[in-house]
Amino acid sequence: MTNTNISLSISTIADALFTQMDQELASITAENPLQKALNAHEVVKRAFRQLKKSSSQYPFSSQQEEIHFLKHTLPKLWAELIYYTELYLLEQKRPLTGSEKTETYLKDILNVYRQFFERHQQFYNYCRMEKTHLDKTYFCSNGADMGILPPEEILDSDSGSFLGTTYSFRRAKFIALERLINQIEFDIHCLHHPQMDLIKSSELRWTDSKAALIELAYAIQSKGSLNNGNVDVKTIITGLQHLFQIDLGNYYAVYNQNIRLRKKDRTGYLSQLILAMEKRMDDADEHPRFK
Predict the structure, then answer these.
(1) In sequence order, which ranges of the chain are alpha helices (DSSP H)?
(2) Cβ atoms within 10 A of the Cβ of 65, count?
(3) Quick check: 68 and 62 in contact, CB under 8 A?
(4) What's the angle, vertex CA 67, arms to CA 65 and CA 73, rounded to 5?
(5) Rounded to an integer, what distance in angstroms lies between the CA atom of residue 248 and that of residue 211?
(6) Do residues 64 and 11 lie in contact, with contact meaning Cβ atoms separated by under 8 Å?
(7) How far apart are CA 182 and CA 190, in angstroms?
(8) DSSP structure class, residue 163
């Protein structure tokens, strides 16, 4: 790695990798779910290797910086790798015919995923409740086990030394499995409601920011615009993800750590929608289609 890269913070390096990775993922055009998952896995693995290389030579300026990297930055990218690894395996073994066989298969996968949360329930609750009092134990190189990979998981075949702590890995897996569970539950729902295939096969693609769509989803749920208000954000997010062919990742964290904490305009995207719509109507007034 060059001296220029070393002068950059690890967060800056990671942000650049995330941006490039998202662009490459959005450009994947494979229609076959299995091939698409494999192509995406290769994209994420390249980004993960680069982050690993950069972080191995990076001198953390403080314990707080190391904790933030091992608790937030690393798990965010690692979750992508776990997600596409699991998605590839899921699609590889999915029954080719028969809705009953498919549903049984998907429910078995759900049970396996949920068992992981049960095995690590105490740490999952720590993450879910956004606690910090044990961060030095879980997310510091001198506080937690380093280099010990859970035996059931081999995600980086190039490995060499293991990156992060076992708790970084588990946090990443929580993020990945939550996304997979949402997706599988939606797939099972579609088996019982064939009309939902229209959403799954949509040619629409969301090309604005992920935060914008998350903001829109929370606004729709807050207004009670769907099912007379009897639907949660998770269900709306899942539907929008399938409709617009996008993975919104940890939408809960984006809402709580980004959207909700904005200092100026907390509903920036909704404000932009209002301005765009008003401009459209103003333009129509100046140049009416009908006289």
Answers:
(1) 3-7, 10-26, 33-56, 63-68, 74-93, 99-119, 121-128, 135-138, 166-192, 197-200, 210-223, 233-244, 251-254, 268-286
(2) 16
(3) no
(4) 85
(5) 8
(6) no
(7) 12
(8) P
- Token representation of residue 125: 């609750």
List, in order, residues 6 or more apart from 19 with CB less than 8 Å away: none
Among 37, 23, 24, 31, smallest CA distance to 203 is for: 31
The amino acid present at 276, given as its one-letter code, is A
> What is the SS3 assignment for 205?
coil
Q: Count other C-beta atoms under 10 Å from residue 118's C-beta.
A: 8
pLDDT, tens digit only, all 291 positions of the chain: 344 444 578 888 888 898 888 888 878 877 788 888 899 999 999 998 888 888 877 888 888 988 998 998 889 888 989 999 999 999 999 998 888 999 999 999 999 999 999 999 999 999 988 899 999 999 987 765 544 444 444 444 444 445 678 899 999 999 999 889 988 888 888 888 766 666 665 667 888 888 999 999 999 999 999 988 888 888 888 888 878 878 787 788 888 878 888 888 889 999 999 999 999 898 887 666 554
Question: Is-contact 55 10, C-beta < 8 A?
Answer: yes
**Type of residue numbered 176:** A
